[in-house]
Request: fold
Amino acid sequence: MRSADLYRRGTGRAVVVVGLVIFVLAIYVLVVLGGGALIGRVDAPSPALSVLATAVVALAFAPVQSRLERLSLRLVTPYDVLTRFAGGVDTGDGDEDLPGRMSRLLAQGTGALWAQVWLGASGRLALAGRWPLEEPTSVVGTDGPRCLPIRDGDQVLAELRLQERPGVPLTAVEERLFVGLAAQAGLVLRLVGLRAQLEDRHRELQARTRELEGSRGRVIEAQDAERSRLERDIHDGAQQHLVALAVNLRLAQVVASRSPGRAAQVLAAQADAARLAIDTLSSLSRGIYPRMLAEEGLVAALRSGVGAAAIPVTVEAEGSGRPPPVLEAALYFCCMEAVQNAAKHSGASRVTVRLSQDEGRWRLEITDDGSGFDAPRVLARGTGAGLLNMRDRLDAVGGSVTISSRVGSGTAISALGPARDQDA
Reply:
């Protein structure tokens, strides 16, 4: 506790103690000595007058003590209260107990029976701090608590409430304190709210950074694995056909001068070998990037790609135009992954694919009526390879994927592309 607070508190207690001593002495002088003088007994105090003085002190002690305590509280001026409140905020002293500190300062500065601070949350006011800490009791002979809302435009941030003592209304100075504290609290609460929003945003960005770092690592691993697969497929497939075709063509060149008929047979056989090599290369290219996606766009490629799915798939499109090529590929493979997962795991009877634009951003939604799954648990455990692949593909182009599913309620996957300025 600060030395200034200790000084004020000690001064207030001294005022109460000295005032009570003076009160008791005054009653004794007036009743015992003054009464004794009136009845002619000045040599020794009258027992009856002493009992009367004691009774008067006993009856008036509590009211006098209450008024002295109120007087001692007034030694803490509104300026002192506002300064202490602002100083505590500036030094970051107890931000988490800000409502409790506000209610304590309000009660001490006005001499109220109790003071409370109610904060707005979800359109309702909730008690956040009070002084004294015990539950307030109903007071007979009062008009109920006084309330003062703290607003930010049309929004109610908080409300200050205090209960005046019976028969002792707030003075003009205390009224100014009440209003001044509310005005200063409005600024502080806005700052606290902004600070909380910044902290939430900071945590979100940290989580997003961790997700992006993980997805980038998985994308690199997937690219390495895909490159190895392509090298293997080219070596074991197309390269062998091309090597065989080259050998047979050289053979035909050698035998052409000696046996034109045999050379013709060898050349004729190479037509089938060439077609087989072309088919192998076409198959490889379709695995990398569907030709229809490049030539006719995302909707046509999706309808063609899901045409052979094990369950009925409906593809719907709203609006016109095409996403950027990189985003088109990401949305295409994300959709194919989702349809494949639904066919393999969900037991769905149908799947609906819908392509649209949401505030200038491309959105692809895939929904099914299958058995669903515990999406948060699967994503947290990292066991859904297909789901991670979808997230990684959209993360790589600046988009995002939202997966909503519960056991028994089907699955909804929403892939959202980046904003227009990111597309460029």
